[in-house]
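Suppose you are handed only these lines of text.
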Amino acid sequence: MGPPNSGKSSLHARLTGSHAAVGPYPFTTKHPLPGMLPHQDIHFQLVDLPPISADFLEPWMFNTLQNAHGALLVMDLGDPDCVEHATAVRSRLREKRVHLLAGPVGAALLALSDDEALEETFAVRLPTLLVVTKVDLLENAAAEIEAFRQLAEVELPTLCCSPSPARGSPRSAPGSSTMLGVVRVYTKVPGHAAEATTPYTLHQHETVLDVARMVHRGRAAELKFARLWGSSEFDGQQVGADHMVKDGDIVELHW
Ligand SMILES: Nc1nc2c(ncn2[C@@H]2O[C@H](COP(=O)(O)OP(=O)(O)OP(=O)(O)O)[C@@H](O)[C@H]2O)c(=O)[nH]1
Ligand SMILES: [Mg+2]
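From them, the structure of the protein bound to magnesium ion can be written out as follows.
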């Protein structure tokens, strides 16, 4: 997401191989366009969106964002109005109760008072990275990014990218899966090695039962126990359905 002409579709095309329409003028993108972004052994669905500005926000945007687990705020700092654009994007989103967060959702919720929490029940909270595009056109990218972060009061973790892969790409975003709270769990059949290449992806605080639901929704209630390698005290430890899984765990389900 971001203001018009900031380079969202170009970035989407580079990261997902989509043929997102790119134009040298604002409001090129009219419809959401999904694509797949492989990162380590996770496939993220990355959706290119139309721009957001002070006087333009697609009415369906809120519904689309409700399904998202995170966002990239894409900004062109060579645009002389970039601070105003960033303010407009965030205030338009806030009107729709969409909040862009600098970290995982859990911490932000804990900081709310009870009244605020009730008020915000239906809000959408998105861990967000600021992605600065067109750094090939900036003379001193580091200084411009710092000035922008201060003037626009943006505290989001920040990455920059340009058409040249040597100058950085969000594909290498350190910790982007940690920020989204993605937990990868590898399953294994008794007596066989773990399925090492295709993890199930869950969220923090999900359990062995959630893994069982993903493997076999109809039989999840029949799960007797699981054996766990990774975050358990010892390899192959027997755990119950309510055991919380951690990123990288190997789980052997016993029905
Ligand atoms: N020099 C340079 N130009 C870029 C870069 N990324 C995008 N552009 C150019 O910026 C213009 C806008 O790019 P788009 O990807 O269409 O921007 P957008 O944010 O999707 O635009 P809307 O859909 O209209 O909101 C195009 O002319 C691109 O070629 C970049 O990293 N460097
Ligand atoms: Mg576009």
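What can we learn from it? Residues 166-174 have pLDDT under 50 and may be disordered. The CA atoms of residues 136 and 164 lie 8 Å apart.
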